[in-house]
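Raw record, unedited: Zn(2)-C6 fungal-type domain-containing protein
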Amino acid sequence: MNGLTGQSSSGRLVPRDGEDNMSMFFDFGSPAQDLRAFKPSTTTQNQDPAPRGGIRVSLACIPCRSRHVKCGAEMPNCSRCQQDDKPCFYAKSRRGMRDRNAPRKKPSQGGKVSPVLGNQFIHGPNAMGYPVTNSSSESYNGPSSDTSGSPSSSSSKPMSSKRLIDLYYNFFYKAHPFVLPRYYFFTRLESDPESLKHLQAVMQYIGSLYAPDISSIEHRDLALNQLDQPNMPPNGFTVQALLLTAIALHCNDEMDRGREILDRATYLALELRMNSREFANMERDPVLAESWRRTYWGLYVSDSTFSAIRRAPSFILNTISADVELPCEECDYLSGVIPRPRTISEYEARDFEDETPIFSSGAYLIDLSRIVGCLLSLEQLPIKQREHAAANADAMLVNWKLHLPREKQGVIDRNEQVDEILFRAHILLQICLIFIHRPLSRLFHSPIEKISRCAPPPSSLDLADRDPRNLWLHTQKTLQAAETAIELLTLPCSILNHSPTAACGITAATLASLSACCYVLTGPEWYHTRDRIRLGLGGLKKFGEVWATSRQAESDTKKIARSVFALPRPGSGSGTPEMGDVFGKMNFADPMEQVVDSSGSVDSLVGMDMGWQDLREVDYLALLEGMGQQGLNGISI
């Protein structure tokens, strides 16, 4: 079995227990647009300027292609999909579903790839002896005096365009480095702007989010309008544009639309066979080939992240065969000197080498995203199987951490800069640990947590008659993971340089800490954890300066925090016993029935004679509406 790709040694996909390979494709609902939105265009072909007609698209439905099985190609549904009772859909192409009534397009001169472009990249700045300026570390210091800030102003448009691209590279690129590095992007933009038209619009939209003097609404609408056009070229740059748009919308509180666009990017990537190493290897320019590899793995990581937040049982690309080579280190990519790509097989054999080889930061993030695919199904298991499955999942995560080389055990690289890819990996590790252990711990999920879109609670488990030692173990592991995740925010760099997808992880860690203050901690530990909660809220506030999802997560978490800190904490007086003393008195079948129903009533605690005040004395509705915000056990939110 291929650990990273979910395929057997024969290359065929392996179905999960009780389901087939394609069932996971439709867990998220049908995308708003599928590959029918992509009509092949004669105006672009970025893989090879030779007149070979581009990538061949044979007549077969998308589900059959994804499973690498023979398709009968019947219309409107193929026989195999009918037999399997699965949805059937095709990619529209001239070689497949040609519309014979449509007028034949004339070749467009503007869409040809400049033959000089390949030479410019192959004989790039390093080969010619020119210094490469790594300007991705530059920071934006506020609006420039010579820029009006209006994207519709013709006089300021060139300056505004470059400035927005610079903001994209300064703030967003390091955490999502799959488009061309800055120097190579501007080089291609000068020689072949048509090929980057759609991608550039999305990058400008993301850059505008970081510009305090420019409204991002117009840039957002422009980018989305271009992506909705029917003549989008089916190539790697379109996949990159869709992927960036999906991430931006997801982090701007448009999670459903972000998921739909990510599905479009995934289907197009599979249609182009970006999951095969040949797609990148037939590219003449090594920097662009590396960009294609990074694009596929960027899809893979984003797919796992989106699915984890939605608590889906799997993610699409985890069921697809792939032999794409792993990305190189960021410094090599930025310099344009691309080393021999490392393979998945080499990575999986690393633990048996006498000297553990060092792979790129991206390789370790990809591996951790693969582990996420194994964890997502835990929620579907009954409680009797959950404990054993959690132990196996915990072992996978600990194994990942133990086998990290010394250079990758922290998030600071050899240049004494924060490695944003390693930051994503390490915070993902802690969130996975919380995902595994909190449902089996004493850190119960309050019903109020259901208001959180970023970190919704799982289905409740019946913890009656569970071994107290196991509950203690899961509680300690959850607390440790939550503290480690939040402390990553104290790194000496701007929080806005981190991936905005980390905000949901920070939310999950903060909610776990809130539960600890409510149910477990006393004395100095209670105050220590409350400070961590404030740190988590501060991180969400900083992310919220740019990203709407973070603003909403901060608001939701504050509402939950107000309800938690409105309650007397364990050990605060009134004869409240320690948690260890009341452990045997708790009804784990329903540990906290603070149920806020549709009428706004609040049920009392059931089976918890802990000396706490009756919950009916707490005006929950006032708290949830943002009232009574001060004087709640010393916290002012």
